[in-house]
Amino acid sequence: MRELLDWIDRNDPRLNEREAVKLLRRVFEEQFEVVEGKLQPTQRRRPRSVQNPHDPDAHYADKGTKQWIGYKVHVGESVDPERAIKKKGEPAEHFITEILTTEAAQDEMAGLTETLKREQEHHGITPQAMYTDAGYVTEHTLTQAEQNGMELLGPTRPDPHKGAYNTDAFHVDIDKRQAVCPQGNLNTQCSRIKDNYMQTEYYRMEWGHQCDRCPVQKQCTRSKSGRRTLVVGLRHDLVEKRRKEMRAAGFAKTMHPRNGVEGTHSELVRGHGLRRTKYRGRSRVSLSHYLMGAACNVKRYLNLLAFQMRTAALSPA
Prior knowledge:
By secondary structure, this protein is α+β, with helices and mostly antiparallel strands. The chain is 36% helix and 20% strand.
């Protein structure tokens, strides 16, 4: 590969404009590196590296217990939270409003933003509320929903740090830039940090010398200085509020309308082959997913019409 690319550079650089040569160079740079003049396999693969030259858009993804090479699909559908739970045999009255196919490595936050944008542009849909799973409920999406006047309903992920002294154990007041630790001590300093590399902003809170004489210092922090710091987002109050709501007794009941989308995922997979595709390239795969969604909607509409006709025929005159 290296000899071929060097030959192209020396003899006919115009070939570098060809898609096949661009792909060859990309695969070479992702798979190999030159160290002290010697060619060797690269030590670290890029997250969006080519897995198959026949389908460069298909990337590797890792989602907890699931790993795959391909794409990620976001499904949106209508729901009426006031409607009573369907009895067995009654057809669904909700329909798919958007199917978004993205890179496998793209996160849920970007997928949610793009799904809402497409629903507005393609169908003129601006939902008052949206039910989602934990992958879509973050500080960023909660803030975005608040700015757009939309209610984002769903659980947020728990604090990744386990133990009695994680973030949830601190009482944080974002407006006052204050936090009270589990021992009742108020922070002595709060700094607003802007990470230009990650393009994020957050608050860093410190307790300083108060930690030196704290009886639970060893359990609270592992820092060399022995002093605890707390890092929270600029709208940590929204995450904290949602976690309090999740602990309330009626939260699971308010999330019941979302259960229907799990059945939709199952229907798309079992009835329309959502997890397998006959096509290569994200544009073609995306079109095939749209056709699957359209077929699912047509089938639901015909089932609903048939049920209404049967019900009308059985009703007394």
